[in-house]
Amino acid sequence: MCRRPFLPIVSLLLLCIFSLASAWAKAPAVPLGLKVTPLGVNSFKVDWTDNSTNETGFELRVGLKGKSNPPRFLLIPSSAFPVPDKAKKSYTIVTNPLAGKELNFQMTAYNGATGFEVFSNPTPIVTVRALSPSVFAAPTKFKVKILNEFQMSFSWKDNSTSEYAYQVEYKKGKGKWTLLTTLGPSISYGLIASVFTPDTTYSFRVRAYKLNPVVYTPYSEVVTVSTAAFQAPGNLVATVSPEAKFAFKWKDNSLLEEGYELQAKSGTGAFTVLGTVATNTTSTVPVAVANSNTDYQFRIRGFRTVKNVKVYSAFSNVFSAKSSTFIKPTDLVAKVVDDTSIKLTWKDLSARETGYQIQFREAGASTFDLAGTIAANATTTPVYELDPGKLYDFRIRAVDSVGYSDFSQTVQVSTKDGITSALNPQISLGYSFDYTVQSSNPANLTGVTVTGLPVGLTYNPVTRKITGFAKTEGQTTVTIVATYSDGHTSTRSLILKVGRASPIVAQTFSPVTVAVSGNSKVSVEGKFSDPDTTSAARFVSSLGTFDIILFPEAAPITVDNFIDYIDGAKYDNSFIHRSPLTTPVIQGGGFRYSQAEGITEITNTGTIKNEPGLSNVRGTIAMARVGGMVNSATSQWYINTASNDSLDSIDEGFTVFGRVATSGMAVVDQIRGLPIGNYTSQTGFSALNELPVNAPTAPDTLDPANLVIITSVGPAPLLIYQVASSNTAIATASLNGTEITITGVKKGSTTIQVKATDLDGKTVTQNIAVTVP
């Protein structure tokens, strides 16, 4: 109980704390074998054996002989000794000068918090005599022993009996002397110093000093030594493990490494890094190396970081070994699923793989292609996107991050018969489409159905052809179903993208050899083509230029008629004479204007037959005609500025015979946005109603200067070409029309890029290989 009556509360608390601390702390065992060695008139080396496991320090008692119970000299905490701690303890103390005097030494161990220590029994008193006389002289026979890359030990002859301590100084190469450490009055020391680096030359010296006042002896002799190099690991051994793995062991010869880098190579190839391991590691678990049944060589080296740069030790010995087998999959089986897919199954016998690699080829082919990879531990997979009615070879192998197993056996399987024709054919607005549904085995084909065709295309089940003209731009998905004599069907989606095709390479350029300062001519004729443009007309107007891509296949009579008017220059100096509010079109081809003659009608050459079929969608051009009279078109045309498909069903429909190229619609839309006016009859023809005028508002009286004049109409170039040399220091290129001139500059090789751009702004390129010998 911690009760004391009539004491103040603070005193009571202190007494309770003291009582508790004393109760908790257990007295340690008494130290054993106390030995004291005089080192000088004022220094002693104290040795003893620690006999306890719970002490927090030791109490050293020192007093002159003749006095009982020597007084406390100092408390030595357990932290003053190296870790891991050892039972044998040694400590050096410095006293006042006591030359020739006898002293009593005694020691106890203690445990507990400061101020509340519990002490062991004291050791027997040990009496020693301080050395005499008092001598203060420089140390001699100074020696430095290199222990490893950065550790060393020092020793010297102690010629003093009154020193307080020693100063050890060092310098690197021819650098300045620097204090390394201060050591007590002993004669031999081991020292670990972080200032030392491997394979470096250092110089050392030592001197003694004492205090009150500070006095130094002369320096000892200078000793120059070099630290050991960054030591390479040794005794590397690689032990073969199952599935092309190796376990590694080696000897750690360095105290500086931050880790180890393991390298491997096979055959005559170069060593490559296999991986790294942490510092002080001397073995690894089995590591996957690469291929099975392969001869390998291994080596290892240490690494450390100096000023953010990784430096390496030399390599260990090279160890050679052959890898074991990376177990391959077996029992591969292939089963047909349908006309484009099969299913593979196999046995997984490996514990190493991170996945499987599937390879295939058509039977008889010389090389395999990659069908895909799948995850580890799988034993089955489908293979898609095969061709119908073909015999294939399949094989499989296990794979991980560093290598492959051998392949399984090769198996064969044939897909079912099916549709083999292309499913994304080229189809362009205004051009005829002719597509045959093809089968891998026509003899076993019992029927083909086609559904979902766009307007303008039809299917003939006898010839199995889809033909006609697509009426509008856009994408349509057509379903084709083929039925075979064994009862199975093959269903495919035919994607018809009616649009604007890009130009293509029709013929490749031949290589060109040209002398230095010489020229070579190359024509671009026939080298490119535009699938959706075989003829075009260029309209130059007072508001800008626009091109018309013609559809001679869809409307051959109309296109011939239109070109006849162009060739006769009858559209030159014509004007846009109508832009009705109720119908989104602009109309021309009816009237011309000149200062000499004023407004006159274009003389037509007679009516032509109507050729309906294509739809009046935005951007298309069609022939105007008299209402109710199907075959009444002559010279007048109109351009749809928005969808006008309602015209497709009026009197059989109107003849669409072309479309405005992409960039030209900006000019057409500008004309459509002009104000319109109605003007009185002119001599020889009816009134000009809904006439677009190029003015802020339509004037009451027509001013010819406000007319939208078509100054000229002529053929448009189907492709525009550009050329560029990839290295003008070797050869240059210039273009004149469709002829390229290549000029040699200096010896070497380069390429000339030729780019073709169609009227819709789409491009294609190909290169000319050029050699300047």
Explain how this protein is built:
By secondary structure, the protein is mainly β. The protein is built from 3 helices and 59 strands. A hairpin with a 2-residue loop joins β22 and β23.
Helical run tally: 3
The overall pLDDT average reads 91
Spatial order of the strands forming the largest sheet: 45-54-43-44-51-49-50-46
Helix vs. strand class:
mainly beta
Task: Give a count of the beta strands, DSSP E runs of length 2 or more.
Answer: 59
Cα gyration radius (Å): 51 Å
The best one-word shape is elongated
Give start-end ranges of low-pLDDT stretches: 1-23
Q: What portion of residues belong to β-strands?
A: 35-45%
Largest sheet: 8 strands, antiparallel
Please give the share of residues in helix: under 10%
- State the end-to-end distance: 112 Å
Provide a brief overview of the structure:
The protein is built from three helices and 59 strands. It is mostly beta strands and 773 residues long.
Q: What's the layout of helices and strands?
A:
Layout: H1 9-24, E1 32-38, E2 43-49, E3 57-64, E4 72-77, E5 88-94, E6 102-111, E7 118-119, E8 126-129, E9 140-146, E10 151-157, E11 165-172, E12 178-183, E13 188-192, E14 201-210, E15 215-216, E16 223-226, E17 234-241, E18 245-251, E19 259-266, E20 272-278, E21 287-288, E22 295-306, E23 309-312, E24 319-322, E25 330-336, E26 342-347, E27 355-362, E28 369-375, E29 380-383, E30 391-399, E31 411-414, E32 427-428, E33 433-436, E34 445-451, E35 457-460, E36 465-468, E37 474-484, E38 489-499, E39 504-505, E40 512-513, E41 519-523, E42 528-529, E43 536-541, E44 544-550, H2 556-567, E45 574-575, E46 585-588, E47 591-594, E48 598-601, E49 620-623, E50 637-640, E51 656-660, H3 665-672, E52 676-679, E53 688-692, E54 709-715, E55 719-725, E56 731-736, E57 739-744, E58 748-758, E59 763-772
Parallel strand pairs: 32-38, 40-59
Antiparallel strand pairs: 1-2, 2-5, 3-4, 3-6, 6-7, 6-8, 9-10, 10-13, 11-12, 11-14, 14-15, 14-16, 17-18, 18-21, 19-20, 19-22, 22-23, 22-24, 25-26, 26-29, 27-28, 27-30, 30-31, 33-36, 34-37, 35-36, 37-38, 39-42, 41-57, 43-44, 43-54, 44-51, 45-54, 46-50, 47-48, 49-50, 49-51, 52-53, 55-58, 56-57, ...
